[in-house]
Amino acid sequence: MLAPAVQEAMPYIVLVNFGIVCAVIVIALSRIGGMVMHEVPTGAQNVAEYFLDWFVKQSRRIDATVVGLVAPFIATLFAVILLSNLLLIVPLPLLNIPPTAYFGVTFALALTAVLGNIVLNGIHRGILPALTHLVWPNPIQLISEVGHAASLSLRLFGNIGGEYLVALLVLRSAPYGIPLIIHGLGLIPAFIQPLVFTLLTVSFLGTAMTHQAKHEGAARRSRRFSLGGRRRAAALGKQLVTGGESQ
Predict the structure, then answer these.
(1) What is the distance of C-alpha 80 from the center of its chain?
(2) Distance, CA of 195 to CA of 79 (rounded, Å)
(3) What ranges do the domains of the chain cover?
(4) Chain-centre distance of CA 205, in angstroms?
(5) ∠ CA(216), CA(63), CA(126), 5° rounding?
(6) How many CB atoms lie within 10 A of CB 232?
(7) What is the DSSP string of the chain?
């Protein structure tokens, strides 16, 4: 297992590793932004466009008008979680501690996803309707949002944290050969977990926006029918008055 000094410094090590992950993403984005784009993509541009197209498609499933808001958000979440998971296979002491094996990080990511859903919904529909969705027409919806955060954080922490503990135990028992197999198998959850996290975030956001749009549409139809009923009643009353005068 880890040395006592490392265990005491674990929160700081996790923060440093998470900062390294964020720095790598910023550098990668700056490099991609500085690339000369070709009409026929090749090499790195082809790979970047392939991955970005997947996030754009997921955003369009919610609403074609929110692609510019949702796609960068879910792409950032995916990249942060994926790179954090992949630190486990880095052959450097301390740096090979994945931030996602620490519950505080996974809970922070889950809160970011849930609060991001509310913020994006507020930008798209308005702050008041986005906040109203949390308590109306079902007040339990607020508890559901808390459940979403707990579900996302526990799922990610359980998978990556468990993998990290298994790797530590195997490395202590058999330091040669077998850890390579464990790391190879660990690539599967390292890629699957950010995918699941992203898809669930898209699902939560789509549910919120779709439910709110249906609620707003029902309210508009109710107002329209109410207005039409008043107009028909006024027309009928006018006819009755006109008929009475003519008699």
Answers:
(1) 11
(2) 10
(3) 4-246
(4) 8
(5) 45
(6) 10
(7) ---HHHHHTHHHHHHHHHHHHHHHHHHHHHHHHTS---SS--THHHHHHHHHHHHHHHHHHH-GGGHHHHHHHHHHHHHHHHHHHHGGG--STTTT--GGGSHHHHHHHHHHHHHHHHHHHHHHH-HHHHHHTTTSS-TTHHHHHHHHHHHHHHHHHHHHHHHHHHHHHHHHH--SSHHHHHHHHHHHHHHHHHHHHHHHHHHHHHHHHHHHHHHHHHHHHHHHHHHHHHHHHHHHHHHHHHHHHH-
> Token pair of 48, please?
């970047």
Joined together, the tokens standing for residue 200 give 């669930």
Tokens of 79: 């990249």
User: What span, in angstroms and rounded, lies between the C-alpha atoms of 209 and 214?
Assistant: 9
pLDDT of residue 108: 93
How far apart CA 29 and CA 37 sit, in angstroms, is: 14
Instruction: Show Cβ contacts of residue 204 under 8 Å, excluding neighbours closer than 6 positions.
Output: 113, 114, 117, 148
The predicted-structure confidence for 162-211, as pLDDT tens digits, reads as follows 888 888 887 777 777 777 777 788 788 889 999 999 999 888 888 777 75
Q: Pseudo-torsion of CA 110, 116, 118, 121, nearest 10°?
A: -140
Tokens linked to 35:
């690339």
Supply the pTM of this predicted model: 0.78
